[in-house]
Amino acid sequence: MNLILFGPPAAGKGTQAKRLVETRGMVQLSTGDMLRAAIASGSELGLKVKDVLARGDLVTDEIVIALIEDRLPEAEAAGGAIFDGFPRTVAQAQALDAMLETRGAKIDRVVRLKVDDAALTARITKRFEDQGRPDDNPETFKDRLAVYNRQTAPLLPYYEGKGLLTEIDGMGSIDAVAAQMDAALDA
Ligand code: AMP
């Protein structure tokens, strides 16, 4: 199964993805994690994207599409991918469909975690205190939310139109969200 976890920053996509890796053996493909790893390693890619991430903007479609394409065989071998933080633009969604199609695969489900802006801001304030991720600072987070609403939320009708979208309430505890996630995937 190929699954997209969809939602704004701090909706809990990464947490739920990690649980699905453990329970279902799928592979988490988080473009945010891949970009942060590139920055930490000081690679050419890392140097190129460092400022973009710090500002809370999106890196180019070409960069993230290439990162995902590289990892598709590994996910395929494991029986499926959990796309976390990708796609974030319509161009990325179209590229993903095309890449999967050439491999004889497709997106099977898109699960949207719904969390209101006040709860997201409260979560991110705590994550900033705990982890100190620079783009979690309150000003940059506001920009990241705006980028989500402007560039990523328009993907919802794209997937709804394909009949792939399931919405779940992301406001509860990790376990409560996980239970809804399992129900959505096993339906
Ligand atoms: P995330 O950890 O998913 O919130 O991503 C952190 C940052 O990485 C984002 O604010 C963007 O700067 C960049 N990023 C991650 N995924 C993408 C993507 N699919 N397209 C463009 N930029 C991305």
Description of the structure:
The protein contains nine helices and five strands, in the order βαβαααβαβαααβα. By secondary structure, it is of the alpha/beta class. The chain has one domain (3-178): Rossmann fold (3-Layer(aba) Sandwich), CATH 3.40.50.300. A five-stranded parallel sheet has the order 2-3-1-4-5. Helix 4 (61-78) runs parallel beside helix 5 and helix 6 (117-131) crosses helix 7. The chain is globular and about 40 Å long. The model has no long low-confidence stretch (mean pLDDT 96). The protein binds adenosine monophosphate. Adenosine monophosphate binds next to helix 2 and helix 3.
List keywords for this structure.
binds adenosine monophosphate, alpha/beta, 9 helices, globular, Rossmann fold, 187 residues
Describe the structure concisely for a colleague.
The chain is built from nine helices and five strands, in the order βαβαααβαβαααβα. The protein is an alpha/beta fold. The mean pLDDT is about 95.
N-to-C SSE string, H for helix and E for strand: EHEHHHEHEHHHEH
SS class: alpha/beta
- Total strands: the figure is 5
Principal-axes geometry comes out as: globular
Mean pLDDT: 96
Low-confidence stretches: none
Tally of discrete structural domains: 1
Query: Bound small molecules, which ones?
Result: adenosine monophosphate
